Amino acid sequence: MNKACRLFFWGYLFVFFRLQIGIDILAAPIGYYLIYSGARLLAEQYPVAKKVKLTAFIGVLISVPGVFVNLSEVRDIGWTLYAETLFIWKVIVVYYLFGTWKSRIQEPGQAHLHNRVHMAYVWYMSIHFLMMLMTAFSLNFGDHAFSTFFIIVSFAVVAMDIMLLFLIASLRRVDWSEYETNETSLD
To answer: Closest Cα partner for 133 from 111, 157, 117?
Structure first.
């Protein structure tokens, strides 16, 4: 699990951050491939990890054009829709990542960790869903109050992405062998 979490961490870091110097230096396809590799390590033990593996593989394929186009500066409706699709796809991959972590954290001794993952899940999904709703209805609002709220939610999305990186880093430091010995002793 630690190696998979390390791959998830670096993969999500590549998906989340964009360093555009002609091309995206922290390419999202590389990040999705790292997430795919981490899910492949867990797929036999945790069936929900197969969904992470599939969505991350599709993420590799659909994020390739974004490497060569600076999506933060596009004005064309096609590229704007593509950027929104990538945002939604990132949320789908993270949804299945949370499902994998929740299926792994089921032991009574892991209640604190389970609560932390669950709270992170609720906040992450809520903020990202709010951003999707705001993006969908943003053409209908043109006032200053909506723009301010949009900026606040945008910062909240970034904060949730950083929070997810911290969560993955903390999951990476958990001694999973301690919980595996408890599982085998119960059999």
So the answer is: 157
- If DSSP codes are grouped into helix, strand and coil, which group holds residue 23? strand
| CB 182 within 8 Å of CB 142 | no
- Name the residue range of residue 158's domain: 2-178
Q: How many domains does the chain have?
A: 1
Both structure tokens of 150:
């949009």
Asked, for residue 16, whether it belongs to a domain, the answer is yes
Q: Residue 187 domain-assigned?
A: no
Residue 75 falls inside a structural domain? yes
Residue 37 lies in a domain: yes
The model's pTM: 0.81
Tens-digit pLDDT profile for the chain (187 aa)? 788 888 999 898 888 877 767 666 667 888 899 999 999 988 888 888 899 999 999 988 888 877 777 666 667 777 778 888 888 998 999 999 998 888 888 777 778 888 889 999 999 999 999 998 888 777 666 666 677 888 888 899 999 999 999 998 888 887 766 655 444 434 3
